[in-house]
Amino acid sequence: MDQIFRSVVDSFTEVTETAESDDSLNTTVALPTSLMNRNRWSVPLDARLLAGLVLSIIGSFANMLVLTVLALARREYGSSVNTLIINQSAMDLFACLSVVAIYAVMLTRGFEYIGNRTVDGIICVVLQGGVFVAIGLTAGKIGLVVITLERYFKVVHAVAHRKYYRDWMTKAGVVLPWIGATCLILFPAIGTSRIVNGRCLRMGVWPNAAMAKVRK
After folding, report:
1. The CA-based dihedral angle spanning residues 37, 43, 46, 50, taken in that order and rounded to the nearest 10 degrees
2. pLDDT band per the 50, 70, 90 thresholds, residue 22
3. Which site in 60, 95, 114, 207 is 20 to 30 Å from 49, CA atoms measured?
4. How many independent structural domains does the chain possess?
5. Which residue has the higher pLDDT, 151 or 44?
6. Angle between the 131-156 and 2-20 helix axes, to the nearest 10 degrees?
7. CB neighbours (10 Å) of residue 33?
8. Is the pTM of this model over 0.85?
């Protein structure tokens, strides 16, 4: 999902830049044959956006179904791993719903800035930058690590797990992915995203070149 979302946003940016620089393209030398053929057979942007929206909606409904089933199972049986998997489904659902919102905006009115620095910054970071999508995906990766460690500890060190494992550890495993993803994605995005000449540079403005290597 992360690659699909990034490719569509990059395509949207490329189309915008192309529309703004037609004069420069008119003076460009002949393009390589491979590039011309690739552009000739490329799928229209609207079709890619619509396909992404449909897939995101399907993913949202699938995660809602899984979340409901797991919640009912936990209510009947109860388990720490069920709680962690429910949290994992919630993170996936959060990412899918964020993608749906971004695709809906891109298909309707696009990303329009109104001149208010605060509002434009929110549009750049949240919508065009897709920060909530990135938070959901990053939290999901951290959540998988938490589940893996919990399962390893319970299976390999079963005696120690029964003796030392407490309910607060499950709660910590639930909140850790959200906190970690927020610190890794949201705060850097707020501090390094800027609107330059009407373009949103997500995590594109860093105090120095050394800090910019974090993106790589």
Report:
1. -170
2. very low
3. 114
4. 1
5. 151
6. 160
7. 8
8. no
| Higher per-residue pLDDT: 155 or 112 | 155
**CA separation for the pair 202, 10 (Å, rounded):** 12
Residues 86, 39: Cα–Cα separation, whole Å:
43
Q: Do 56 and 99 meet the contact criterion of CB atoms below 8 Å apart?
A: yes
Which of 77, 83, 70, 73 shows the shortest CA–CA distance to 167? 83
What is the average per-residue pLDDT within 24-46? 49
Q: Are 54 and 4 in contact (CB under 8 A)?
A: no
Lowest-pLDDT range of 2-11, 107-116, 141-150: 2-11
| Residue pair 132/126 in contact by the 8 Å Cβ criterion | yes
Name the amino acid, one letter, at 157.
H
Q: What's the CATH code of the domain at 58? A: 1.20.1070.10
* Cβ–Cβ under 8 Å, residues 64 and 80: no
pLDDT score of 160 more than 60? yes
C-beta of residue 126 within 8 angstroms of C-beta of residue 98: no
Give pLDDT, residue 106: 81
Tokens representing 212 are 């910019």
Q: Please name which of 33, 127, 144, 38 lies closest in space to residue 88, comparing C-alpha atoms.
A: 144
H-run or E-run covering 122: helix 117-122
In the 8-state DSSP scheme, what is residue 215? G
List of residues 6+ apart from 127 with CB closer than 8 A: 101, 102, 105, 111
Give buried/exposed letters for 57-89 (b at 16+ CB in 10 A, else e). bebbeebeebbeebeeebeeeeebebbbbbbbb
Contact yes or no for 98/139 (Cβ under 8 A): no
